[in-house]
Amino acid sequence: MTTIKTKYGYSVDCYGDCNEYATLFMCFDDECFDGHTESNFKNWRSAVLELSEYAHRNGTELVQLESDE
Description:
Elements: E1 2-5, E2 11-15, E3 24-28, E4 35-37, H1 44-57, E5 62-67
Parallel strand pairs: 2-5
Antiparallel strand pairs: 1-2, 3-4, 3-5
């Protein structure tokens, strides 16, 4: 497990290996946004950066990411 702090002050727990071939399963504070993404993230830091921005724009917080790798 890796924990990454966002620029919004909260931390996101990341499980598995993040690479450009992984499918990431996303958990948000507002469960309506939970799902998966097949974006080409090279590492957890880039995934958390982009997905926490998405969460912020939608009024929620990213809680957890899990990779299928």
